[in-house]
Specification:
heterodimer, A: 516 residues, alpha+beta, Umud Fragment, subunit A, eleven-stranded mixed β-sheet, two-stranded antiparallel ribbon, 17 helices, 13 strands, globular, B: 103 residues, Outer Surface Protein A, domain 3, four-stranded antiparallel β-sheet, three-stranded antiparallel β-sheet, 3 helices
Chain lengths: 516, 103
């Protein structure tokens, strides 16, 4: 598979610093694109500038331009984090930066070497007030999870994730707000405070192991190596913190994976003894490091199961029964309904699909008049859809009226979280790259290999066929219209009937024109 | 705003971030709402050298001395180029005046 060749070459480069010859049949442009997708375009450019292979000439300029743009964006993201932390601090609310912004400012040579899709902050206290501060400053809610809420910044350019904890089900690995604050250190760049190196490494490990099932991009694995190489990690302190957070297994598994993928230097004091089941599950993956590199599909449920050996009842309870959202309904009937719904969704979960389309395959941005305006990049949209139960978007066209009106806000559920059903209104990526709301018509089971079809309610004809991965999400609710679901049989059938009639009229017209 | 003079001392402001990335050196202004892609400034080797010497302690004349010593350039040309660069940086608010002999 060509894509694996690219990832393989990039992994070798990141792990060993060696830029191998470009495999036959692999275009340099594809390698550059894969490097961008994996967040290591700067790494590739540095190697190309150093070794100057002839095959890299066509991509050097583009990589340089990308690096400049990334520098500007990443500095802006760090600035956004710094401004938000100042806003919170002005109200007496303690918060710390998380992951990408910290890493970009501390362990990478230049900020552009650590691209990120969003900005993460950890609120250490008084969650509702922290949310209120952001809203007052003009941030707009876009998605909510049990461990973090996502906001669009007032300029509309970036997404800020305000975390209550590093990973889902916050109670499983309880954060230690007081300790985090006491251990934090002064920053030397835009960020005035940074988590301690041990806290940073622990957060990275929890995120990698529990949140992503040990399947990350290359730059996210490189984070571990950079922290181990460039920060003075106190192994004893790290293991004490891990024990306190009940995270020995996640940190052990993540460090072993980082060693396998990018050659992270693992001191003996940090070499873990994993639970037997986790060790057995992990061993074949360590032997095939590319299986730990996105877009490989993580076996998330199994990974969590093995990471929580000895605490599985708690895992099931916190995943299914206990909604740990700040605004969740914690009454027993609501909890049971939540558990039942979530259990059913998990039971119906579809098997891993083909890898997502890489970002370079995107078309132009959507035309505001035609459909849903996606205020940020598709890569980020997919990230939000996979990370959060719901994502909010505003409809700016009239192609789906009256099911969806111009200016209405919809709640989207990612296609991987809930399989789109016939008659659903979905967000579909069209052949020309636009992302539009459409009525969804699945092919009959007998033709499961057939392309998927969609149609605008107010359109005359069905859209061109789509691949399964082009259906990004389905509309779950329309704000301000409680109790009304856009998936209504009458409207859907009327839309389908209209499409069929239009198609028949077209064919009849074509036949009439063809007659002598 | 008056034009910079060589006897004055200048320091880099916090509004502008300089980064060496690969073979190039860029200045990125940190605007009110993050960095600004449209205002990115690429510096050549001499300009990078001057920027790195704008430490709030050296006067413009001292920097010109260092440029003449480091690069093959006559003093008149070095003075002219340094003043032009200082002028540009001042317009971008990338430098701020500092008291001679230190901040």
């Amino acid at each position: 598979m060509a894509e694996s060749k690219e990832r393989g070459l990039l992994r070798t480069l990141v792990a060993t610093g060696r830029l191998e010859a470009l495999p036959e049949g692999l275009p340099a442009l594809a390698l550059a694109q894969a490097a961008g997708d994996q967040g290591v375009a700067g790494f590739l450019l540095a190697a190309v500038e150093h070794e100057r292979p002839a095959w890299a000439e066509p991509i050097t300029e583009a990589l340089g331009a990308r690096r400049r743009a990334l520098l500007v964006r990443t500095l802006g993201q760090i600035g956004l984090a710094a401004r938000c932390l100042s806003l919170l601090e002005a109200r007496g609310l303690r918060a710390l930066p998380l992951k990408g912004v910290v890493l970009a400012e501390t362990v990478y040579d230049v900020e552009s070497d650590r691209p990120m899709s969003d900005v993460d902050l950890l609120a250490l206290e008084r969650w509702p007030e922290a949310v209120a501060v952001l809203r007052e400053a003009g941030f707009v809610d876009v998605a909510r999870g049990d461990h973090a809420w996502a906001f669009r910044d007032p300029g509309g350019r970036e997404i800020l994730e305000l975390h209550r904890s590093v990973v889902s089900a916050p109670g499983l690995f309880p954060p230690d707000p007081g300790g985090l604050w006491e251990r934090c250190r002064a920053g030397r760049g835009q960020l005035s405070r940074l988590p301690s190196p041990e806290d940073l490494l622990l957060q990275l490990a929890l995120h990698a192991a529990f949140q992503h099932g040990l399947c990350l991009s290359l730059v996210q694995w490189l984070d571990f190596r950079r922290v181990l190489e460039r920060e003075a990690i106190d192994a004893g302190r790290l293991m004490t913190l891990a024990a306190r957070a009940r995270a020995e297994a996640p940190i052990g598994a993540a460090l072993l994976a980082a060693e396998a993928v990018v050659g992270a230097p693992l001191p003996d004091a940090l070499r873990p003894r994993l639970p037997a089941g986790l060790g057995r599950w992990l061993a074949p993956r360590l032997a095939e490091p590319l299986s730990l590199v996105a877009p490989s599909e993580p076996d998330l449920a199994r990974a969590r199961w093995e990471l929580l050996a000895g605490r599985r009842a708690e895992l099931v309870w916190r995943t299914l029964v206990l909604p740990e959202t700040p605004d969740g309904d914690d009454r027993l009937p609501a909890r049971l309904a939540f558990a039942l719904g979530r259990g059913l969704r998990l039971a119906r979960r579809q098997p891993p699909e083909a890898p997502l389309l890489p970002a370079h395959d995107l078309g132009p941005p959507p035309a505001a008049a035609d459909g849903v305006e996606v205020p940020f990049g598709e890569e980020l949209l997919r990230d939000c859809l996979s990370s959060f139960p719901h994502v909010r978007l505003t409809v700016t066209g009239r192609c789906m009226e009256p099911a969806l009106g111009h200016g209405e806000t919809v709640h989207l559920v990612g296609a991987r979280r809930r399989r789109p059903r016939v008659r659903d209104v979905v967000l579909a990526r069209q052949k020309d790259g636009r992302r539009l709301p459409r009525r969804f018509w699945r092919p009959p089971p007998a033709f499961s290999c057939s392309p998927w079809r969609t149609k605008a309610d107010r359109g005359r004809l069905p859209d061109p066929p789509l691949a399964a991965q082009d259906v990004l999400a389905s509309v779950d609710a329309v704000e301000g219209r409680p109790g009304e679901h856009p998936r209504r049989a009458g409207r859907a059938l009327a839309s389908l009937a209209g499409g069929i009639a239009a198609r028949l009229r077209l064919r009849a017209g074509a036949r009439a024109e063809a007659l002598p | 705003m008056s034009r910079p003079r060589l006897e004055e001392t200048w320091a880099r402001s916090g509004r502008m971030v300089g980064r060496r990335i690969g073979d190039e050196y860029v200045l990125v202004p940190l605007a009110g709402r993050g960095a600004d892609l449209d205002s990115i400034l690429n510096l050549n080797r001499v300009a990078t050298f001057v920027w790195e010497h704008l430490d709030g302690e050296r006067t413009g004349a001292a920097i010109v001395d260092a440029v003449v010593e480091r690069f093959e350039v006559d003093r008149e040309r070095a003075e002219k180029d340094t003043l032009e660069l200082l002028d540009t940086l001042l317009e971008l608010a990338a430098i701020v005046p500092a008291a001679p002999g230190g901040r």
